[in-house]
Amino acid sequence: MHTTVGIIGGGPSGLLLARLLHNAGIDSVVLERRDRAYVEQRQRAGILEQATVDVLRAAGAGARLAAEGLIHDGIELRHDGRSHRVDFPALTGGRRVTVYAQTEVVKDLIALQLADGGPLLFEADVRAVAGADTDRPSIHYSHDGRDQTLTCDYVIGCDGYHGITRAAVPESSRTTYERTYPYSWLGILADAPPVYDELIYAHSAQGFALASMRSPYVSRLYLQVPNATDPADWPDERVWDELDARLALAAEPGWRLKRGPVTQKSVLPMRSSVTEPMRYGRLFLAGDAAHIVPPTGAKGLNLAAADVVVLARALEHQRRTGSADLLDAYSDTCLRRVWRAEHFSYSMTTMLHADPAQSAFDTKLQLSQLARIEASAHAAAELAENYVGLPLTQES
Ligand code: APR
Ligand code: PHB
Questions:
Q1: Rounded to an integer, what distance in angstroms lies between the CA atom of residue 334 and that of residue 304?
Q2: Residues 42, 47, 49, 50: what is their CA dihedral angle, to the nearest 10 degrees?
Q3: Cross-strand partners of 211
Q4: CA atoms within a 13 Å half-sphere pointing along the CA-CB vector of 54
Q5: DSSP letter (8 states) at residue 206
Q6: Of 79, 23, 102, 142, nearest to 304 (Cα)?
Q7: Is the minimum distance from the CB of 296 to ligand 2 under 6 angstroms?
Q8: Nearest-atom index, ligand 1, CA of 13
Q9: Ligand 2 center from residue 212 Cα (angstroms)
């Protein structure tokens, strides 16, 4: 089998890229190792920048997003037992974000691709990429119990942080920059209505907590926990008690979350990582395959979308004009945005979490920075601009 663009991975990056290429009249094949149900159920973040919403809408995946997405005009920051709001439109010239779960984005893109797109193969496990530095790279995968080969003009690694494409770039041709954090998140999904209108990011002596939502009936909540925490050590009541303690307000001692059945519970490690360049010959890396961020800034999905928009435009330009200029610029173009998001995600993470090794001095610095954001429109605008994201055409 041959295709113009072989896409490895059917997460948000691979699925959105396939859709953008389809709309541009460029054929592609998506190979996804998991089954459809698994990909559609995998819990991930749920904050879409306006630029991401615009891209999904332009790609034809905006209908349910427009109907069910929750538009948010700000976030709440809690610290020292009090709360203040960061008003996005006021601080960014009218920009806002949309709460719409990644699982829903993935479901919408899969439905579109299966309805009228190129092949999207589930349970197609890619084992190797060969000839990335030649004109005719190939993807070797197993499907239906058989070893198969897909030859391509271009191979795109959209296979996430644990994929195989990053390692298909020879070690001498890539550099990975990495940082780990001494904590993880315990996340729960609960059939409980959020009692808050906006997301709450809380700094507390016991550690970070985040109150998010999936709908007016479903809450998504996170607690900072030590690395390697076993979710079994966190029965539901303990999770709720700890969330209430970390989100507590001195002026409203009765403030509590609404409790309800917990439908999902898992522990997420935190890591920052960037691999440069995001290209080797005719192999291009996009999304989590090239870079990951800790989830505190809600940037992962938005970065993935930005990468594949840049890539789809470059492939289209190549097709239309015969020029590889934009493909040659792909890595540098993406990396400017990636490093901005890396810095923002790192800053949010280290400002809000309690590092088990931190001193009382470090805690005072965190609280001073939070107070600064509360007191200064300049400091708040810096957070807000990064959170709502830059327009796609602007790099950093
Ligand atoms: N063969 C085929 N598919 C593979 C292989 C392989 N060898 N290895 C991994 N995959 C698939 C995974 O099963 C997964 O569905 O690649 C997909 C990668 O998807 P994601 O991890 O969601 O990565 P990406 O599409 O880049 O989306 C980034 O996901 O992790 C979040 O916060 C992150 O929101 C961001 C988004
Ligand atoms: C989520 O809703 O899952 C979510 C929201 C904001 C974040 C991270 C995760 O920063």
A1: 10
A2: 100
A3: 200, 221
A4: 13
A5: T
A6: 102
A7: yes
A8: 25
A9: 6
Determine contact, residues 75/296, Cβ cutoff 8 Å.
no
12 CA: nearest ligand 1 atom? 25
Place of tokens 């920059």: 177
Residue with tokens 């107070």: 371
pTM: 0.97
- Contact, 219 vs 192, CB < 8 A? yes
Domains of the chain: 2-70+101-179+271-354 (3.50.50.60)
* Cβ-proximal residues to 44 (8 Å cutoff; 6+ apart), any chain: 101, 102, 103, 300, 301
- Please list the pLDDT of the chain residue by residue as tens digits (396 residues): 999 999 999 999 999 999 999 999 999 999 999 999 999 999 888 899 999 999 999 999 999 999 999 999 999 999 999 999 999 999 999 999 999 999 999 999 999 999 999 999 999 999 999 999 999 999 999 999 999 999 999 999 999 999 999 999 999 999 999 999 999 999 999 999 999 999 999 999 999 999 999 999 999 999 999 999 999 999 999 999 999 999 999 999 999 999 999 999 999 999 999 999 999 999 999 999 999 999 999 999 999 999 999 999 999 999 999 999 999 999 999 999 999 999 999 999 999 999 999 999 999 999 999 999 999 999 999 999 999 998 876 544
For ligand 1, pick from 30, 159, 161 the residue to mutate: most ligand atoms within 8 Å of CB. Answer: 159
* Closest ligand 2 atom to Cα of 348: 10
| Structure token digits, residue 341 | 């998001």
**Alpha-carbon distance 74 to 200, whole Å?**
10
Ligand 1 centroid from CA 266, angstroms = 18
Residues acting as catalytic residues: 72, 201, 295, 299, 387
Q: Which residue has the tokens 């998506």?
A: 30
CA of 131 to the centre of ligand 2 (A): 39
Spatial contact of 96 and 88, defined as CB atoms under 8 Å apart: yes
